[in-house]
Structure formats: structure tokens, C-alpha cells
Amino acid sequence: MAEHIVGKTVFLDQQPIMLYSRFSNLESIADKLPEDKRNLVELTQDSVLVKTMGMEFGMRLAQRVPFNTLVFEQMGQSPFPFQFIMHFDPAASKDGATDFHIELNTELNTMLKMMIGSRLQPFIDNITDTISQIAAGRMPGGMSDYVV
Fold this sequence. Notes:
Helix content: 10-25%
CATH class: Alpha Beta
Distance between the termini: 37 Å
CATH architecture: 2-Layer Sandwich
CATH superfamily: START domain
């Protein structure tokens, strides 16, 4: 079953080009990971692959719309196909700021829909909140072991 989740929009007091640039090169994540987790993650400019519990799953940057949109697609042994889309729109309320939101497109079989379907919206909104906190220079709750 096709699922299309549109996350909430948050205001980020940074220019879209700055935020877009941070996320368009996934290698920049490497120095933010805890030292003991770095061997579990393979990063290139366009992909992130996590190795855990005998599986490899991740995503690759499939499409860039400069300074506006980044489209990521599943990579590795994902149990379902997905697209994860980040939107960096110029804020209507302030020049030099961003209205940011995430969309998720996925195909879930009936069993997965029953298990995780209702959790996708809160998951996307949680990721949005985390990105918002990091962009504002705050450490998100539960991430005290990570260097941002």
C-alpha cells in the first residue's frame, strides 16, 4: 500500500542554501558520530549505509534541486522501498530564513502497515524537530552522547 506522509513545517532561522548545503554532502555526518559507532556506518557524499544485526540498510541521495529539495531513496536491505524528501523553502515570514519540512513516500505491505503505519507521521515529525533543534544550536533530548 502506498503511503505519503507530509511532516510538519518548521521555521529555521538560517538561509535555505546553508541548510541545503549541510545535508547535500552526507560525508559531513562522519565527524558528528560517536567514535564507537563509526565502524557501523559507511558514508559517501551521496549515501549512508548502516550495518547492524547482520543487515545493511541506508539511503542514497537520488535527486538534488539546488538549495530547495533533496530526495533520498532506500539502499541496502531495506524491508520496504521509500523516498525521504527534505524541502528547504524560503520563509514567508522572514528574509534569509527557511520553512522546512520532510515528506516520506513508501510502499508497505499489509503486515508492515499494521505494525508501523500509524507511527510514520510521529517519526517524520520527530526527525523534523531534531533537525530544528540542531539548526538552532540545541542538543536534542536523548542525544547527549553525540557531538553536534
